[in-house]
Amino acid sequence: AAAGGGINGAGATSTTRIDGTSRVDLADDVMLTAGTSATAAPGPILVQAWTELTGDDTATLTTGGLLQGAGVSSRYIAIVDNAVTLGSNDALTSFGVINIGTYTLANARANAYVSTYGLAGVGVADADVTVHSGNDVVIGTGSSLLGLYDVNVTAGRDGSGLRTNTLNGAANALGYVRGLVAVPDADASTDLQNRARVEDGTGASIASAQNVTLGAYDGLLSAHADGTGHGYQLYFIPVTAGTSSPGSSSSSTLVMNGTATAGIYNTQRVEIGCGSNASQQCGPNDTPTIRFVSGAPVSAGYDPAFNAVAYINAHYDASVAGTLIAGVNGAPVKAVHLTQLYAAGGNVFVNAGSVQGSGTLTANGGPSITVINRSNAYLVLDGGAYIPESTGGQIVGNSGSLTRHANPDAAPIVTIDNAYTGQLDAS
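Predicted structure:
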């Protein structure tokens, strides 16, 4: 804007205001299931709410005349809230990762420029940036989250940790006044606020076969303000006036009244044998019992006429098939098939400025897979045995008054024990 005249007063104002809400709400008794295999088809569950802001507001005013008064104002205001809420008794189950998170990415600028000249001049520039971000995650009472990979419940960042709440605000107020009497004034202020809160309800369960992260994050806040008014009395004597008020604040709170367990499947044990608990040696003609003692879900099947040679030819490269075939019976045999065996330790990571509640944190380490075969049936691991290369048994971060259970890291162990000592067949 521009103005001129003998006696003149002029003003220019630019204001941008944004009020926004990003929400994901699950009703009560919702069930979500993703994936079919921890390795072949993990199927992640991602539940995230976020806001991205980019703004550049500029107001400029130039005036000239005998007696001049000029004022310019630029304001950028954004009030946003991001929330993910799970109702009561919801159940989220994934063969992969579960990521629940909320965050804001904001980059805002407000610029106010004023220039005036005359016999007597007053120039005022005012620039203000306000960005307030609220981030909430609520896990309802009685709800459960179960993942075979990591389970991350975070406010102030996305679940994976790739994006953290980031607020950048810059206010620039600049004025130039020339005259016999020159009165400059420039004010710049920035107000950045982030609030992050995670609440885990009573009876809620968060469980992972690997790691659990519970975190409310302050985020990255960068506030800049520059208010400078330049006056030139008698047209050449410099006078400077102005105020610069950059401000930022954040709060992060974790309220934990449920349970969180990492490495929930740290021990897998399968026993094949006879008797009520598969604990006895089978006879050569007995059909074995398969007992799943502990660990991740696994399926089993019994084949009374398994063709080992055909199986090897179908599943292995010709360069090694011959060696394997030399060690098996060419006639049909009994066999027990097991799908993928899986065990993993895990850590619990806690992050918040304030940790409250009466919940329990458990981190299990020392993953192990044990299969004991007390029958003369061949043991076929169709999916192999998988233990991730990761640590376990640690609770990391300030957990306040929450109950803690942990065991230290231990080396992973896979034990396949063909413990049968009887006849291979009844002949």
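Summary: Confidence is low (pLDDT under 50) at residues 1-10.
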